[in-house]
Design a protein that fits this description.
With 103 residues, the chain is α+β, with helices and mostly antiparallel strands. It has a domain of 68 residues: Ybab, Chain: A. It contains 2 helices and 3 strands. It has a 3-stranded antiparallel beta sheet. A hairpin with a 4-residue loop joins strand 2 and strand 3. The radius of gyration is 19 Å and the shape is rod-shaped. The two termini are 28 Å apart.
Length: 103
């Protein structure tokens, strides 16, 4: 028979580890780039955009749509890398076990 107290302690420990991981992910950064580095978007591991850098060469008043596309592409790439980093960190805690509804 499983001890309910033990399960509660395990859940508490798991949540504490996840909280620590989320704090750590705030300090880990990934970059998305587009246009050969003309646009760089930096995100932390919690998918929060931290910085956007646009080179002057990417700014063409006659083609604002291209700049918008570059920013969008770099942002999506940065967010995808942040999700991958997040999932990798969670996998380390759970040993690769998927726990639906936990996150």
């Amino acid at each position: 028979m499983i001890d309910p107290g033990m399960i509660q302690r395990l859940q508490k420990d798991l949540h504490a580890r996840i909280d620590r991981m989320k704090e750590e992910l705030k300090t880990r950064y990934v970059e998305g780039t587009s246009g050969g580095g003309a646009v760089v978007v930096v995100s932390n591991g919690n998918s929060e955009i931290q910085e956007i850098r646009i080179s002057p060469e990417a700014v063409d008043p006659e083609d604002v749509e291209m700049l918008q596309d570059l920013v969008l592409a770099a942002t999506n790439q940065a967010l995808e890398k942040a999700r991958d980093l997040n999932e990798s960190s969670i996998s380390e805690i759970t040993g690769g076990l998927k726990l639906p509804g936990l996150f």
